[in-house]
User: What shape does this take?
Amino acid sequence: MIDHDLMNYNLYESADFEYKNVIKNVKKDGSVLENSKEAIDSILNRDEIDKNNLFYSFNMDKNQINKLFEFIINKMTFNDIDFNFFNKFSHDGLVRILNQNECPKNLVFSKELTKIIDETIKFSELKENGVSKMFFLDVSLPKNANQKDVEWIYIMRPYAEDIKKVCEHIKDDLRKNIRYRYPYKIVFSPRKLYICDLLFEQEGIYEYVTLTELENDLIRIDDDVLSMEYPDFLPNYFMHGDQSWLCSIAKSLINIQNWFGKIPKFHLHGSCAKSVYELTKRLEELNENNLIDNHKIDQLILIDRNIDFITPFCTPLTYEGIISEHFKLNVGYIEHIPDEIKRKIVKLSNNDKIFENIRGMHISEIFSHLKKFLADLKNVHEKKKEINSVSEMKNFIQSDLKNYTELSNALNLHLNICEVIINQKTHLELSIYLNVEHNILSNRDYNKSLEYIEELINRQFDLHQILRLVILLSQTNQGIPNSHYLLLSKQILHNFGFDKIVLLSNLEKLGLIQIDNSALKKEDSKNIIKISQQLTSRLKGTKYATIAKKLDIIPGALDPMQLKSSSKSVDISYAFNGNYRPILCQYISQMLDDNPKSNFEEISKLFPGEYDRISTFANSVRNTQLQNRTVLIYFLGGCTYTELAILRKIANQKNYKFLFATTSFLNTEQVIDIIKN
Assistant: This one.
């Protein structure tokens, strides 16, 4: 009746489940998993374990029991993965660097590393490890000739611009005849490149410095998210072909496998993914392949960002996605805090229980959920009136009062954030803008979309929002006809300044804007009607149209419940008002589908680069029993917060556990500003 291999699985020993009554409400029609989730969740964290009730007290067949057991095993093992290891690894590395010399230290770091250092080590610990003063790299540094025992430590990215700033600081000391007992310590995060040694040699100060590395390739952003926080990777690799950072990505994969075991199955798509995998294999060989086989991650997806340049430029409508667009998030911290929020530092993560519940919701649903939390606050307040003894008062202070304070502060924060978002949205013609965006994604009304973009340019609307539509128009139409793009680019330069020519050129180099010279003939250049007819007929055969059809990214009519993010049957297009299913998310979902009838190979050929599936070793016990349910998705070139929200929905619907790693997080403004520079 029962698969005894499953029964004997050793995770029984560490189970935090009481199996009694697990499937009390389970129907006997084969829908075991669907009907037992709530029952299992309700008995989490109880101590008693009763295996017999699970298997022998119910008249169920082998497949039903195995399916239910598989779900329970997943529940037990998914919580084993703790990403705090990465921050501790960085913390220990920084402490070692600080303690190499017993003396007072002055710490200088670039502004972009501020939040990373905050996540790595507490300010009090810096003091404990000898740091007396801290400075930003961009400011002039106060130097004292009498403090010769002070060690100057610089923490920075391996950027030529920052290295030259350090050189100027050191040269200034030399001109003033200031000498220190210890050489200047230059710490590169996450690694030192060849150019670093070269620049210090060229500046003639190599003898005054020691160069080292702080290996913090990945930073824990949340329970299930790691990031390199290196947004420059996108243009550096996909525009300039710079492979300098591939080694850091490969090292991060080695660290992941050192900690969580050798990953048995790899999915690769794109040239970057393939290069990273090959480099990882070389590093494994140098490490004598000492990775443990007892793994906690079953599959790894390495995927290039250029597979889907469309989604990062779609207007996000999830709560976390909107926050990223409006306030910018840096290592999970809100970077540009409006005065209305009245807090200096705001870190958003699952430690905030309200944020954990609403982060992936559509913005229209947020207020109703905040009202529920307000009701919880009122209940705690009413409970206070019922206290009749000292012991009850003590219990209230130790538990309820603490929860009340945390919930109250979080509720005020999110109400203020929502108020700022709503006020900003009302200043925009959002509904018209979103309608045009939807038409572009659906390959409809090309001429009207073009006219609307021209109107925004001539009104000198926000350039980021204009370029968002231009990029979407280009990506969905396999390029913008040359005559149309010449008109748009001239209008942009006249209205926003001729310095924007560099930005437009870089957008073309990266492939975000493509110019199509094939669709139009010179003699038709003044015949708008004929141009439009040619374009309309051509759109039906574009690669985007094929991808849209194969991956079903443009939904038809949906039931209202399918657009509610809290619904179990939610359609992933909810994040874009039911108008669009992100290409990358749909592609990953197809990638994990083992259906032999799937046309996945045909779909994979529609994207740049090649797809490859590699099994590193066979006959894994966990691989067999859990059916590869824990998947790490590594985005090479960045991802959006909305994509993560959607992938979490897919994971819940398909009973997967998704973990995420990325080179950085993206939004329209950030990508355009990086490319501009």
Remarks:
- Residues 4-80 form one domain.
- The two ends are 65 Å apart (CA to CA).
- Residues 1-59, 73-79, 619-626 have pLDDT under 50 and may be disordered.
- Residues 639 and 665 are 5 Å apart (CA to CA).
